[in-house]
Amino acid sequence: MKRRTFIEKSAGAGAAGVLASSLLGSCVSQENKGETQMKEPGIIMPVMPHKDDISIAQWSLVDEIREGLWTTLDFPKLAREEFDINGIEFVNTLFDVPHMDYLNQLKQNAGDYGVTMVLIMVDAEGDPCSPEAKVRRQYAINHRKWIDVAHYLGCHTIRTNCRGVEEATPEENLEWAAESYQMLLDYAAQAGINVVIENHGGVSNDPDWMEKLFKAVDHRLFGSYPDWRRPGPEFDNVAYLEKMLPYAKGMSYRNQPTEELSGRMIRLSKKMGYTGWYGIESSGRDAIREGKELLIKYLGL
User: Fold this and answer.
1) What pLDDT digit, counting tens, does each position of 99-128 carry?
2) Beta partners for 120?
3) What DSSP line would sit under 65-99, residue for residue?
4) Chain mean position to CA 215
5) What is the rounded CA–CA span in Å between residue 283 and residue 56?
């Protein structure tokens, strides 16, 4: 379905209905011409940062938001005044209704405080691995509105989840996920928005399965967003990071049990050529400050 046709047909449905079609249809807008570049026919590539920088993942302060201490509109001010950090990473479920006035206010607030809006973490919009074709298609459709919002705000990426069907074989999950992401990427390509997967359980915790998925889809906007989870008996976070770094388009940084391990993972990222944002997702203000100090130290910022 053509992009504008889809927008016109879906403008009244769900959360996407709160956005005017003039906003959704401006995915490749004059305002954002300088932020993207054409690499091949039909695919607009986001301009990725050429240096390392630090951002805050909104989820790191989710308890404060749930307590009503601040809202998403306050996020740019908080990032600058409380932490003096240059980037912010949103969570879609923490947005208020994203109508035009709301998004414009968010853009203004980010501009006022000199904060870059990096990405949107998308939760509660389904899983790409489903044996039902209509469910796989709905997964792709559900994420389209967040691609539009991300582009309008100037973000370069949306983050998705991919846990899979527990009862299915890895091969079945791979086939279903590949189809779902290809549909989503066909839409994202028109906006130049990266689509990434964070290891949030299930098949996404298996780096070998993830690598097979990236190769099967084979799309320049498709990649990983490694979550630096704490190591455990069933998850080797260093080994996972090493395998996902060639596909990484962002980092979900978390402080490790020791500074030595945190430093090791940061040095590994640099050694393997990753350049870009490190989004601190360690929980609480003290942990964010600790993460900033470690990233500055080991990145040489």
Assistant:
1) 999 999 999 999 999 999 999 999 999 999
2) 90, 158
3) HHTTS--GGGHHHHHHHHH--SEEEEEGGG-----
4) 20
5) 10
Dmax (CA) for the chain in angstroms is 53
Are 286 and 269 within 8 A, CB to CB?
no
Locate tokens 């391990």: which residue?
Answer: 261
- Digit-coded pLDDT (tens) for 164-187: 999 999 999 999 999 999 999 999
What residues contact residue 168 under an 8 Å CB cut-off, 6+ apart? 129, 131, 176
Q: How many angstroms separate the CA atoms of 213 and 291, rounded?
A: 31
Distance CA 129, CA 206 (A): 15
CA distances from 153 to 26, 40, 149 (A): 12, 24, 6
Question: How many other CB atoms are found less than 10 A from the CB of residue 294?
Answer: 21
Helix (H) or strand (E) segment spanning residue 265: helix 259-271
**One-letter amino acid identity for 194?**
N
